[in-house]
Design brief:
Length: about 55
Amino acid sequence: MRNILIVLMALFVLTSCELFQVRDSDPPGTAAVWNDFTTTWELAVENLENCYEDR
C-alpha cells in the first residue's frame, strides 16, 4: 500500500509542474541552407553536414 502511495505522489508531483504539457515552438531564425531535393549522394552528404553545422 505504501508503494502505491509513493507512486501516486510522484505522479502528482510530475504532472503538477507541467512537465508533460505541450509548449509553443521557437520562432524560426534564418532560412535553412540545405537542398530541398537530394538526387545525388553528394547533396545528401551536404545536407547532413549542414544539419550538424546548423545546430
